[in-house]
Specification:
GO terms for molecular function: DNA-binding transcription factor activity; transcription cis-regulatory region binding. The chain is mainly alpha-helical. It has twelve helices and no strands.
């Protein structure tokens, strides 16, 4: 017995890739909390049951969205330049994709996946450090430290973690005073900088801190 609406989906030429692409567009527009299979079916002009010809459930679809967004990242080729330059370029590509898909990208960072796109992202990161000739165990530590920084920094920038965001001068002043009112000398001295944050500056500083720390560890200053 053919599911109701399934024939119409086939007539429209729907494929798994098209369903996932539509889901990426919807999530980028409306956010993941507003997303549902029912709304996706309406967007596509089909009935709910037609979706199940292409995806088994919502979790599988969200995994597909994460995979599609990750697969869309064009990581730089790992030829030429220093390892420091390569990891900077790698980080820039990853962050650019996050800014291009600010509402869908958290799925990349929070859904475990063993998709080909995820493995390629991992391989391309490891390749940045290949010339350091680290033992496999240590290069995995480096990979995970880098990944932890990237995930934390991007989630914060996209508003999914504690982040003050852009504030006007009055808001910065109010925040500064609220921090300094404790009277603690450390908090008072840093209050103007704790009160505000620039994502570009914070990202670059954190990345350079990781790079310089690794360079010092391997004796590549």
């Amino acid at each position: 017995m053919t599911a109701r609406g399934a024939g119409r989906g086939r007539r429209l030429g729907l494929t798994r890739e098209k369903v996932i692409a539509a889901a990426v567009t919807m999530i980028d527009r409306d956010g993941p909390d507003a997303f549902s299979l029912r709304k996706l079916a309406t967007e596509l002009g089909i009935e709910n049951m037609s979706l199940y010809n292409h995806i088994p459930n919502k979790d599988a679809l969200l995994d597909g969205v994460a995979e599609a967004v990750l697969a869309g990242i064009v990581f730089p080729e790992q030829r030429g330049g220093t390892w420091q330059e390569r990891i900077r370029a790698h980080a820039a590509a990853f962050r650019a994709a996050a800014k291009q898909h600010p509402k869908a990208f958290p799925l990349v960072l929070t859904r475990p996946t063993q998709s080909p796109a995820a493995l390629e992202a991992m391989r391309s990161t490891l390749a940045c450090f290949d010339e350091l000739r680290l033992a496999p165990e240590e290069v995995v530590h480096v990979l995970r430290s880098y990944t932890a920084f990237m995930v934390g920094s991007i989630m914060r920038e996209l508003g999914y973690a504690i982040y003050l965001g852009t504030m006007d001068n009055d808001q910065v002043q109010q925040r500064t005073e609220a921090i300094a009112v404790s009277g603690d000398p450390l908090l008072t001295a840093t209050a103007p900088y704790l009160a505000d944050s620039d994502p570009d500056t914070e990202f670059q500083y954190g990345l350079e801190l990781l790079i310089s720390g690794l360079a010092a560890r391997v004796g590549d200053s």
